[in-house]
Amino acid sequence: MGKALQTAVARQRMLLSSRLSGPMQRLANACVAVWPEREALEKILEQGFEVLPYCKYLFILDDKATQITSNISHKGPLPDNFGRDRSKRPYLADAIAGEKFSLSNSYISRNARRPTLTAAQHIVDDSGQLLGYLGVDFDLRELPLTREVYRQPEEWMQIKGDPAIRGGLFLQERIDSAMDKRIDEVLDLIVELVEVYGVFHAKLHFSSSRATLWLLDDPLRYRLLDIEDLTDTDICLAWKRYDYPADADIPLERVKDVFQTLRDLRFMDETLYLRAGSLNIYNGIVGLNFSCDGSHYMHWSEFLDKNVDFWLGTNNTEYNNDNAE
Hints:
Layout (H helix, E strand, L loop, with lengths): L2 H30 L5 H10 L9 E6 L8 E3 L2 E3 L14 H5 L3 E3 L3 E2 L6 E10 L5 E10 L17 E3 L3 H5 L10 H4 L1 H14 L2 E7 L4 E6 L2 E9 H4 L21 H15 L7 E7 L4 E6 L4 E5 H6 L2 H5 L13
Antiparallel strand pairs: 1-7, 2-3, 4-6, 5-6, 6-7, 8-14, 9-10, 9-12, 10-11, 12-13, 13-14
Helix pairs in contact: 6-8
């Protein structure tokens, strides 16, 4: 997980903890007065849905982490878990180690097989003696948080591919594909579709002579075009015209430069060459997949700052093959 994504997750966990700790502390305090009567404890847990309406199960454990109530659900008690030893469960590790309130990392639940997390609250008497634990399970899809849309950071990402392909890199060489033979026609049409016909994400698969395109007016479905489509300018007649989006990250006048540079990388070497390349105009990210099966994702401006010599390593004495992997 990248640092930016980790930060987004940490923020959501902090918000969730702040919402849960108060209600769970009050429920735990209510349990002290009736401890350890199972029926009375289960009635208190049923009342827990009034303050935690989005939880899935509530349950009580003794100080050894053995369950002394049923699981209480919105549909009523589920007695099968009574007597269950939860002391070895990872989601209770922090609570057993001494955390008065803890929120587990998410995990796949045993029964529903869905992402779940568990919050645990110490139940202590007036003298501070630990009586047991209040546990609450949450299905991630039912949590009430209003999540901000996670945005991919713009820094260059490099991902190595299949080691078997990298190991055999120098035993292969590029063979002209149908797209290679008509590359200028294809690129002119793709640029036109991006600039005028509402394509906001275009990926060219040079080796297999196809393209996958995403459109502004139907963004949830991609279009797959073969080489016949990509060399037939009449397809523009079937697509709606759009003004180039004002909120696109890459300026209109630089779109063609990106695709021309993809062309250069396709033909830069007979062994190390581009297999596929993409551009998303909204986040400005260029995606590259090379013959060594390595992938790169970088901002268009950084991409255009680098020439073919950079990718081949001929202008950098410290360069090694990992840069293309």
